[in-house]
Amino acid sequence: MLVPLLLILFAAPPAETDVAAESRHLSNPRQVTFGLPRAGEGYFSPKGDWIVYQAYPIGYPFYQIYVQKLDENEKTPRLLSTGRGRTTCAYFSPDGEKIIFASSHTDPHIDETELKAREEAAKGGRRRYQWDFDPNMDIYIINVNGTGLRRLTDAPGYDAEGSFSPDGKQIVFTSSRDGDPDLYIMGADGSNVRQLTNTPGYDGGPFFSPDGKWVVFRSDRQKEHMLQLFIISVDGKKEVQLTNNLDHVNWCPYFHPSSKYLIWSGADYSQGPTGPGAHFNLFTMDLDWSGETVNAGHVQQITFSSAADVLPVFSPDGKSMMWTSTRTPDGTSQLWIAEWLRDRR
């Protein structure tokens, strides 16, 4: 199964952006990753002074994990992963001392895997984003200085898309160990694994709520590839569907630190995957916590661009928003950051 992101181009024409519309929500948008062919899926350190992300190294066909100081004068990334295999989904521990990420560097056929990827790249053309459910993918933890790499999962199948609970004691992640991708929770040391969802289709991209009591995620359980947003209590007893429009793809939800709303990326597929609306912009959804569960509230569009705007996250203080975008001058995917204006009015 492939997450339906085949229309996110990593080499796209220059974007047309409605700057005035975006200025109601964002201030001083700027590119923060440079020097690598493409980069994305970035997350802040707990203090907001570093970021971790995935990027293609020059001359290598798969993403690797990099850390970088978030400083206007510092644009040099440092490789954190092993340099081989597919890697994805890096995330800081709440104490800022460790980072988890998924990697397939222990693939027993890695030489063949790399050769095939290089042959495909040599064919040229604009490469589209394709999420690979690599069965050799496992979750690893490493010190932020690059030492002490340790494997946390070893079950057969794809294990990735991990993130920490706010107290740092648990990790929620996606695994195909039962035959299709579902959500699981384990201890921060890889122990006490338990299944959280068990529904046919893909459940993935999970993040804990700021209070640690809920997990937000994406799923195509209703219609293959047409992702919708869901939220589930950490005990699995309560689940709420937040979006329900199978003409739209909704993915990569992320909580604001206030818990008052979440942000995600969505696209209109009502005229097909190549239709005029089938490019991704960012949206927020208010959350109503007044009852015993959570209810979806007002939805507002945040970005207004012909570029692909995806994978948004907030800084720990909620004052900045970082996302992956092809609005770069050369149309490649890079990380962007902007001041977040919603809570400053």
Query: Which term fits the overall shape?
Result: globular
Kindly report the spatial arrangement of strands forming the biggest sheet. 1-24-23-22
Number of strands: 24
Q: How is the main sheet built?
A: 4 strands, antiparallel
The overall pLDDT average reads: 92
The number of helical segments is 2
Which stretches of 5+ consecutive residues score pLDDT under 50?
A: 1-11
What percent of residues are in strands? 35-45%
Distance between the termini: 43 Å
Q: Measured on Cα atoms, how large is the radius of gyration?
A: 19 Å
Q: Helical percent range? A: under 10%
**Class based on secondary structure composition and strand pairing:** mainly beta
**SSE order, one letter for each helix or strand:** HEEEEEEEHEEEEEEEEEEEEEEEEE
What does this structure look like?
- With 345 residues, the chain is mostly beta strands.
- Helix content is 5%, strand content 40%.
- It is built from two helices and 24 strands.
- A four-stranded antiparallel β-sheet has the order 1-24-23-22, with no helix packed on it. A four-stranded antiparallel β-sheet has the order 2-3-4-5, with no helix packed on it. A four-stranded antiparallel β-sheet has the order 6-7-8-9, with no helix packed on it.
- Strand 14 and strand 15 form a beta hairpin.
- The chain is globular and about 50 Å long.
- The N terminus is likely disordered.
